[in-house]
Amino acid sequence: MLRIEKLGRRFGRNTAVSAISMDIPKGQMVGIIGPSGSGKSTLLRLVSRLIDPTEGRILHADVDVAQLNGRDLRQWRADCAMMAAQFNLVGQLNATTNVLSGLLAGMPHWRTKARIFTPRERALALQSLDRVGMAHAARQRVAVLSQAGQKRVAIARALAQKPKVLLADDPVAQLDQTQAADVMAALRAINRQDGVTVICALADPQMAKASCDRIIGMRDGRVVFDGTPDQLGRAQLCDIFGRDAGVTFDDASALAMVNAA
Amino acid sequence: MTDMTRPAHDLTGLDAIRHDYLRMTRQRQLYTGVLILVFIVLMVAGFDTADSRNAGGFWEGLNQIFDFPADVISEAIEKAANLPGHIMGALPALIETINIAAVATLIGCGFGTLFAVLGTRGLALWPALIPVFRRITDILRAIPEVVIALVLIFVMGGGPVPAMVAIALHTAGAMGKLFSEVNENVDLRPVEGLASVGANWSLRIWLGVFPQVLPNYLSYGLMRLEVNIRASAILGFVGAGGIGYELRNAMTFGQGRFDEAAAIFIVLFVTIVVVDQISSAVRHKLTHGGQ
Fold it and tell me: Hey, are the CB atoms on A74 and B199 less than 8 Å from each other?
């Protein structure tokens, strides 16, 4: 179980997130929704410890992740796969090598640097690529793949990590509807088949409702909704996306959602 | 101030903008004119000062500028039969010169890479020490190779090793600067992606940064090799061995060895052209033909 207690993060005088508390049972698929700037990405980056919290605790298996550093911190990052919103693979390396980099926590550094991988490791990487339908691109440089292809390779790398928790920051950004549905289905499959806890930040509430067990709504760095997809109605969406506070162009789809609900 | 130069309130919005625009254009033209004038005055005055402090005088010496090359060429033509032999004789020294340059470039680029990574914001292992590493490269770059070589020759005696060390130190400084500029343009998202799978600093640099910058590094390194071959030849003049040493001996007046000097010039010229051609072909392939 992942327990977050009163987590907060300030950037200078700006408070990005504050007083976030939640319990996420193992194997749950959680969707975090909210307008841009509401703190979704910050929350995910805090949990993966890519940035440090200014207050609060993150407990995983009774260990306070927020206090880890050095080797323990790198081990946590290896256990907690993070898919960033923007492409964060190495474009110059081929897909297989990128996926194999997901295994680096478990192998000696010189072997990763020399890119000497055992047949078993290579087999695992290919298997991961195959699970997301990218085995055909195994030897292609990632930079030449399409956006959707790169997303899939990123999922394959996360798979190879054999993570306990998978964080996905807007995994469907810049994808068309079919591609987005495919990516969400892939995440759902990992969640169901491997029992991995998946937490994804999503801009589209409809997508979150369709694929997650639980929805968390954020606004101005705080949790304003926490419940099942069924409980997320028009009133709650208005709460999260602040219909009265003046809806920006970015939130146009959310507004359409609010009107449709 | 600007309000005072604006004549009246009855100008419409567009007229006011046009007025301001024309005024600023005139001002810019005026500044450009003044700057050109100052530049010309400085050049003329500077030439006069320099010429008056010259022992011989610029205009008197100008017509003698081709005397030495003419001597060399006429003597070389006179003894043209000796040239092939002299060229062959210069080859061992040439190889020594190229060796000095190659080893110095390799070592210098190695240290340059280290300084560059440690001195780039966003990549540095110890961000607080970035200014330290930057100043180290500044210092290495600021001291001329000849000065380092002279000191080392004084301490260690003549030979290729002092020259190699001198060139390597200068190269480390120069490459540290160039490489860190390449590093500034690195996409940091892959680096963070590697951090997110648990990579430590050296792995993040190795897998996330080097694949991005290596073509550029190699291109700069090859360019530096050309520069260093010339530097290594020049260091021969101060006793560091190689082809520069042979050239100095042959070039001394009144020995009747100008045919040998000509042979060395030919060898050096051909070498530089060959290295330049090879490296530009490789660099072109790296930057354009990569995929």
Answer: yes
- Rounded to a whole number of angstroms, the distance from the CA of A58 to the nearest CA of chain B is 17
What are the pLDDT tens digits along chain B (291 aa)? 444 555 555 567 888 888 889 999 999 999 999 999 999 999 998 888 887 877 767 777 777 888 878 888 888 888 888 888 888 888 888 999 999 999 999 999 999 999 999 999 889 999 999 999 999 999 999 988 889 888 988 888 878 888 899 999 999 999 999 999 999 999 999 998 998 888 889 999 999 999 899 888 988 998 899 899 888 888 888 877 788 888 888 877 666 678 888 888 888 889 888 988 888 888 777 766 544
List of chain A residues whose C-beta atoms are within 8 Å of the C-beta of residue B200:
74, 109
B167, B104 Cβ separation under 8 angstroms: yes
Residues listed for chain B? 291
Helix and strand numbers, DSSP H then E, in chain B: 13, 0
Q: The domain spanning residue A233 has which CATH number?
A: 3.40.50.300
> Scanning every residue of chain B, which has its alpha carbon at the shortest distance from the alpha carbon of A103?
B197
Q: Are A104 and B193 in contact (CB < 8 Å)?
A: no
* Residue A50, domain member (yes or no): yes
Q: Tell me: do B22 and B105 sit in the same domain.
A: no
A107 vs B: CB within 8 A: no
Q: Identify whether B61 is part of a domain.
A: no
Clarify whether residues B117 and B188 are in a common domain: yes
Nearest CA in chain B to A105: B198
Q: With contact defined as beta carbons under 8 Å apart, do A197 and A164 qualify?
A: yes
ipTM: 0.78
Residue A200's H or E segment, with its range, is: strand A197-202
Structural domain containing residue A71: 2-89+164-260
Give me the domain span that covers residue B164.
68-287
Predicted TM-score of the model (pTM): 0.73
Adjacent-strand bridge partners of A83: A168
Whether residues B144 and B10 share a domain: the answer is: no
Residues of A in Cβ contact (< 8 Å) with B193: 84, 88-90, 154
Total of domains in chain A: 1
Angle at B91 between CA B88 and CA B92, to 5 degrees: 125
Q: Determine whether the interchain pair A113/B195 forms a contact, defined as Cβ–Cβ distance below 8 Å.
A: no
